[in-house]
Amino acid sequence: MVTGGLLQQAFLLQIICRHALRILALHRNAGIQLLQRFFIEAGEDRLQQSAICG
After folding, report:
1. CA atoms within 13 A on the CB side of 6
2. Looking at the record's lineage, which domain of life comes first (predicted)?
3. Residue 15 neighbours by CB under 8 Å, 6+ apart
4. Smallest Cα–Cα separation from 6: which of 16, 14, 17, 18?
């Protein structure tokens, strides 16, 4: 009985860890996309300013 309980706890811990890693991966990808958008928008602003000044 004790072994079955430990196996069940280990299995649940494994599931929780997998979900946590997936969530972290999604957040990392979203963060990268936000940074890319920020730099793209900053680059577009610079291009517009140089076109106006030039």
Report:
1. 3
2. Bacteria
3. none
4. 14
**Which pLDDT belongs to residue 5?**
82
Tokens representing 30? Answer: 């979203």
Among residues 3, 26, 25, the alpha carbon closest in space to that of 11 is found at: 3
SS3 50: helix
Token pair listed for 7 = 């196996």
Question: pLDDT tens digits, residue range 1-54?
Answer: 456 788 888 899 999 999 999 999 988 988 889 888 888 888 887 777 777 776
